[in-house]
Amino acid sequence: MLMGVAGTINSAILVRARAWPHVPASVERCELSLRYGKSDAIWEAHAVFRYGAGPTRHYDTTWQPAGSPVYSRSAASNLSREQFAAFTKTYCNAAADDGLRVSPMFPGIARRNEAVEGGAWVREVGFGLFAVVAGFMLCAVGIALLPWIEDRPNHAVKRKAPRARNRVSGS
After folding, report:
1. Which whole number is the average pLDDT over 147-161?
2. What is the DSSP letter of 136?
């Protein structure tokens, strides 16, 4: 459920980032790797951006580059070092040229320009809402399955009848 809340918050940040100014950034470190699924392999980029005055601030992020090819597992193992280096240079340079969107109120909050303009917020809000709903359902099922819920004895509320007091009033 917490992952869903985080995804929903990130999608709200991405939507809000459309109004933030575009800030040039330098890439301090960028690396590309292949992430393997069950039957395919996709490119995944990881970069540390420096931005701001002097560049004192940094933004660390991981993403799947837009337009990157998807390989079968067997074809991915046939990539040469030169191809790997060429893809790394291409995608890291594109990220450096694209820059960041930085919040004017909170300069520590930044997002990649491509993610802001590319509509990544739709995927994030979908994931976030799905995870929140699934988390609530799992919590409800977990509480319903607790043993003390069903085995609790039903105590009837017993009221004692007020005692009748024989008062003899003598007049």
Report:
1. 62
2. H
